[in-house]
């Protein structure tokens, strides 16, 4: 399975990511091992979605990082 996830920083900003091992990837974020999410912390997992197809997961992650994806995220996901 492939996962697209959204983390919320303590300052109300979001990080959108992709992983094939969601549990380990989230733990890496929480442990400060991912440069983009080292600060500000703490982080909270607010959304994730599972995909069987890697391309579909990557396409959804890419969409969420667009302007219309931001609007969709704010209205439907978080």
Features of the shown structure:
alpha+beta, single chain, GIY-YIG_endonuc_sf, GIY-YIG domain-containing protein, 3-stranded antiparallel sheet, UPF0213_domain, 3 strands, 3 helices, GIY-YIG endonuclease, 78 residues, GIY-YIG_endonuc, globular
Please, could you describe this protein's structure?
By secondary structure, the protein is of the alpha+beta class. The chain has a single domain, classed as GIY-YIG endonuclease. It has helices at 22-30, 54-64, 67-77; strands spanning 2-9, 14-19, 43-51. Strands 2-1-3 form a 3-stranded antiparallel β-sheet. The longest helix has 11 residues, at 54-64. It is globular, with a radius of gyration of 12 Å. The two termini are 22 Å apart. The relative contact order is 0.26.
Task: Itemize the secondary structure elements and their pairings.
Blueprint: E1 2-9, E2 14-19, H1 22-30, E3 43-51, H2 54-64, H3 67-77
| Rg of Cα set | 12 Å
Q: pLDDT below 50 for ≥5 consecutive residues: which ranges?
A: none
Instruction: Just give the CATH class.
Output: Alpha Beta
| CATH superfamily annotation | GIY-YIG endonuclease
Strand % is 25-35%
Shape: globular
CATH topology type: GIY-YIG endonuclease
Binned, the helix content reads: 25-40%
Number of helices: 3
Structural class: alpha+beta
Cα end-to-end separation = 22 Å
Provide the CATH architecture.
Answer: 3-Layer(aba) Sandwich
Strand order, sheet with most strands:
2-1-3
Let me know the largest β-sheet.
Answer: 3 strands, antiparallel
Overall tally of structural domains: 1
SSE topology string:
EEHEHH
Mean pLDDT: 95
How many β-strand stretches? 3
Protein name: GIY-YIG domain-containing protein
Pfam family, one: GIY-YIG
Domain GIY-YIG: 1-78
InterPro entries: GIY-YIG_endonuc, GIY-YIG_endonuc_sf, UPF0213_domain
